[in-house]
């Protein structure tokens, strides 16, 4: 598969970034503000102080390395399309709220969405290209 020139990385890709062949990622990649929120909350969820520090360092490094795309009015309007597509597919949007907000950012920006968990985005095939890494 040809790699797109531009793409939005899902949180799952960032968790496994050390294990991913970077040639499979687009030349330009960004994250959504939702992904940054998930990464920023990660340290609070860790009980082990070493793991907490690792997660904090990862969140900081990622925020310095890539562009963070805001969840703006265009993404909010795109969310209506994403929500509707998931409902049409017979899925429950509330269970995947963060994933759908991330997908809305990809749709609003016209970016492919790179993920380790393509099932999280099932039902969105007509709206965005989801690439399993």
Automatic annotation (TrEMBL):
What does the sequence similarity comment in the record state about its family?
Belongs to the PINc/VapC protein family.
High-level lineage: Bacteria, Bacillati, Actinomycetota, Actinomycetes, Mycobacteriales
Needed cofactors: Mg(2+)
**Could you tell me what this protein is called?**
PIN domain-containing protein
Tell me, what's a Pfam family for it? PIN
Instruction: Answer yes or no on keyword Amino-acid biosynthesis.
Output: no
Q: Where is the PIN domain?
A: 8-118
Record SUPFAM superfamilies:
PIN domain-like
Q: Which organism is it from?
A: Corynebacterium wankanglinii
MF terms per GO, please? hydrolase activity; metal ion binding; nuclease activity
